[in-house]
Amino acid sequence: xxxxxxxxxxxxxxxxxxxxxxxxxxxxxxxxxxxxxxxxxxxxxxxxxxxxxxxxxxxxxxxxxxxxxxxxxxxxxxxxxxxxxxxxxxxxxxxxxxxxxxxxxxxxxxxxxxxxxxxxxxxxxxxxxxxxxxxxxxxxxxxxxxxxxxxxxxx
Length: 155
Hints:
Number of strands: 6
Shape: elongated
Helix content: 40-55%
Strand order of the largest sheet: 1-2-3
Structural class: alpha/beta
CATH class: Alpha Beta
Number of helices: 5
Low-confidence stretches: none
Largest sheet: 3 strands, mixed
Number of domains: 1
Mean pLDDT: 88
Strand content: 15-25%
């Protein structure tokens, strides 16, 4: 399993073409997600995000109960394959100015990766690196930072 597979969310929340924005937004709120996939007969047609809701619905004064999601969704979908290197995914986030990337396997959605998930991964790795470096330094100086009781493991 590669890094993207361990980071992405696999519980995909989606909508079908023809659903109203109000219904889709309620589903997003219930599932606490900022984006969902919009499909038509199982085929990915777009994504609908909080930003779409804000700019294309609220910002344009549309009625969410009378607006179908496909009229306001993002149709130029930026995706990544499941085996895409992490460095490439970071480049996509930065260059495309997006916060969510649908992850595909063989052209079919299998997950979604958010900048929040990605940042959490980076922070955990940095914290682990700092702890390991600190531990190595203390061991090198002749002390064991995990020997809190004062004993020497039976020495």
